[in-house]
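## tool: complex_structure
## caller: assistant
## args:
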Amino acid sequence: MEQSYFEVLRPGINSTFQDKGRFGVQYMGLAPGGAMDYQSFLLSNVLLNNDKNSGALEFAYQGPLLKLVKGKTKIAITGNVFFKIYSPKGEITGEPYRTYDLNEGDQLDILATKASVYGYLSIEGGFKLDKFCGSVSSQPRAFIGPNDGKKIELKDKILIFKNSTTKENKIIRNIKFEEKKIFSVLPGPQFHYFSTASKKQFFSTPYLITKQTDRMGMRVIGKSLENLVNSNIPSEGIIKGAIQVPGDGNPIILLSDHPTTGGYPKVGSIISSDYDDLIQQNANREIYFQLVTLEAAEQQFTLYMEKVKKRIANIEIV
Amino acid sequence: MIKKITNISDQGIICDFGEEVNKDINKKVISLFNYLKEKSNNDEIKGIYNIIPSYNKLVIHFDLEKNNSHKIKEIISSIDLEKLTTSQSGKAWNIPVCYDDEFALDLENLTKSLKLSKEEIIKTHLETEFYVYMIGFMPGHPYMGDLDKKLFTSRLQSPRVQVPIGSVAIAEKFCIIYPYLSPGGWNIIGRTSVKLFDTKNLTNPCLFSPGDTIKFKKVNKSELK
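## result:
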């Protein structure tokens, strides 16, 4: 059988392949990477009955325009995404969290993420991608991932593992996109380095998300944090969500492609259940931080997992 | 010895071995790292995403769906660190370096700040047997020590936007090699052509491991691959 594939007619701004991430190798200096919005990534695969960790195409702001040159496939797009499908039957505006069939010659135009940043495209059976250390996640800076970790480019061929064989399409209804303003934080390893007064401000005044934000980190600007001890520490391991504070006192929240270790003190860490919502916040949006207890964070995580499971249970045939 | 074990996230804890940075403490960190890595590989400890050793800390990142900090802290507290084998001796490496002016971008300036000649700086660097404390920041990037006191120096006032691949650089009591083009603020004294991280090597992509020892060997430009 001939190889089925998409051709990239427009790559989009930052389109890379991602799965859950690359684990067990951070001690070699390799960051986990992985889909920024894990829940959206997961649901794109579950809608198609794929392996839960099958690689998806992640895009930010403007996504790609793809032409299905050979084959037949079924797609699912997740996130708050505006997209169109062009076929001989005409043009339709697609809904996220619903599967669609694409036939040979059809085009998929992922125009934009709405009031958010990241979206995901999965296809039935998955993309044909090479793994490195157990993952297809791309890290362009270190040339790691499919096609040497490059972002997808114009005229790239994206290979499809197998043609679609299922008839019915599926949908998750009533997904609400709410704007989240307050993000919960646990104290970091150098919490005590910072003055009580400046921590009080950190947990009560707004911070603006700047444009200096990417898969590595999110820079926010607000009242600066006053370090009373030292603005350099011997480098130590980093986990995504950590809020590091360099000498200038302006926090940087470290995201999925963070350096594996770092020498700046960390005032706190965004709780796991708030991470997906955090990375979906646009630049120029104001957010607040609130200090919570470990028990509260663990409880929130349980609720987060329950919500994901409920969404999966609510998948229905269109 | 572990001074304290604390949460740094709902899915992460840090074992703090104190503030000091020396080989003895680092060897304890690495022996705990090796022990926990094996337990995780055998699935005796569930849901471990990553274990990250550094100079004097060990960070454990786990999946809260499969484990929790209470259980992991309990496991670590029950380990007798003294009984863990610290003998796991690392590999010994000889790494070629070219100290020519075109590569040693900061050597000239160091002669002034350290009040040593280029030859003295190079000789001291070559005589040191380095110990790999940790790999971090970027894939394959080693942090090595300890430099001879004569070469202790601070980082550049303003970091370079782009440091050439393979640059060998020093700051404080440490020496590093830049595996990728990246920004950097360390003092560059030479260049190596050794590949520190090889994505074509699927079983062992990272050249060095924490605990390895390294001696540098002076080569001509023509001997750099």
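## assistant note: The mean pLDDT of chain B is 94. Chain B has two domains: 4-83, 92-223. Handing back to user.
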